[in-house]
Amino acid sequence: MKAKWFIILAIIMMLTPISVQAKQQSPMEKLDDISDEALQMVKFHRYEDAKKLLDYFSDQFTSITGNEQPLTMDEVRIVHTSHDEAMEAAVSPNMKYEERINKLTKFRLVIDAIATSHQPLWTEMEDQIMTAFHQAKDAALNGDSAHFHSSFNSFLSLYNVIYPSMKIDVPVENIQRLDARINFIDEYRSQVVKDQKSRQELDALDTDLKNLFANLEEDEADPSLWWVIISTGSIIIMTLSYVGWRKYQGEKGLKKDRSRDLKD
Asked: Which of 35, 155, 189, 195 has the fewest CB atoms within 10 Å of its CB?
């Protein structure tokens, strides 16, 4: 009976901290939710509602950075720039729908990169980016200049969406190496299509892009997840140890009783 109550108590102790933690939300996580809501409004063509959310975000962000300054100056600059672009997309009378979505997505990814310590959302665009790049690379290898230009433009458009959030999560030397390769290919497009030696830059960029996403995927898991795993494992071990100890004590008592019976 005591073992049953011990197990119940252990489960309560294990779940209580998790429940408390789940209810707590940091200021940046709240801003992350606002940025997501603004993106959803633009997706549904509700531009005035998106503008209101972006105005509210600006007020809240100013309050956070003014009181605590939890961000670096570079991060603050990136947030302001992406927010300005998102606001432009919400209020512009002529901007195309796809461009509006790209600017709000860029803003959303920036806030997520700051609010999230693991697996940022921008890494989920890996398949789209790599597909566009590989189409451009194949076109260059086949000497198809028109297809190369259109595919590389698609790649640049997608890369531009994740670029600000990349700068938050990726070491500056890696960003600079990617910039150098992309700028070279973009400036010497005709040469890349015609010259085999210049096409080697495509192979090098392919490797750098794969490493970019692979390194982010290898980041450690969320610390709270490790806390859950360790806590759960510890409680299970404690419970099994206690049950085993009770069983041992019970068997030990039975042996003593049998010994007495034999003596009697």
From this structure: 195
If you search the block for the tokens 């801003």, which residue do you land on?
31
Angle 41-45-49 (CA atoms, 0-180°, nearest 5)?
45
pLDDT band at 61 (very low <50, low <70, confident <90, very high): very high
Render 101-147 in DSSP notation, one character per residue. Answer: HHHHHHHHHHHHHHH-SSS-GGGGGHHHHHHHHHHHHHHHHTT-HHH
Rounded to 10 degrees, the C-alpha dihedral 185/190/191/192 comes to 50
Burial of 239 (0-12, 13-18, 19+ CB in 10 A): middle
Q: What pLDDT does residue 216 have?
A: 78
Q: Which two tokens stand for residue 166?
A: 């990349």
**pTM of the complete model:** 0.74
Spell out a b/e string for 188-208, using b for 16 or more CB atoms within 10 Å of the CB, else e: ebeebbeeeebbebbeebeee
